[in-house]
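Per your request, structure below.
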């Protein structure tokens, strides 16, 4: 495995930690405004899935002797970078309402700006792209497959939870 790929995965891990800092601050803000958390049960599964993905990205190329294939790796790296850009566009658009948890402030308006003009759940588009692309940067096709399927199952639960939680929100 190439050392630059290790640095890419570690950079994604650092980005995840930065998200958690933002999420913790935003959770305090929304909870101070009578925010209600939904879906606590699936949150630990989500954390485990994303942690497992990052570990798998580092392990599979080494353990299975996966080569770096430029014709696959460079486009997947670009896709993973675009996913990060979309995620941070979502974070900046939602401001203090963005969170890794589902916390809804009663009576708050739904956000209809930024990527939310185009999609109801653009952050999850970023997640799907990243989960598929990051392992494929270094040909970790087994990790890409397993985590994409697991992520699809988790997102089915998560999006259902979020949609239910947002039913009381006022349209933008």
């Amino acid at each position: 495995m190439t050392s630059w790929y290790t640095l890419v995965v570690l950079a994604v891990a650092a980005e995840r930690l930065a998200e958690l800092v933002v999420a913790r601050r935003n959770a305090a803000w929304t909870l101070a405004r009578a925010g209600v958390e939904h879906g606590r049960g699936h949150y630990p599964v989500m954390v485990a899935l994303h942690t497992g993905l990052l570990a798998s990205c580092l392990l599979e190329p080494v353990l299975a002797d996966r080569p770096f294939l430029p014709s696959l790796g460079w486009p997947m790296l670009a896709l993973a970078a675009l996913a990060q850009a979309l995620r941070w566009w979502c974070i900046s658009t939602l401001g203090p309402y963005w969170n890794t948890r589902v916390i809804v402030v009663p009576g708050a308006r739904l956000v209809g700006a930024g990527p939310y003009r185009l999609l109801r759940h653009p952050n999850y588009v970023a997640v799907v792209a990243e989960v598929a692309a990051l392992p494929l940067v270094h040909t970790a096709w087994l990790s890409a497959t397993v985590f994409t399927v697991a992520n699809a199952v988790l997102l089915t639960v998560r999006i259902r939870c979020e949609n239910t939680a947002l039913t009381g929100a006022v349209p933008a």
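The first strand starts at residue 36 and ends at 38.

Regards,
D.
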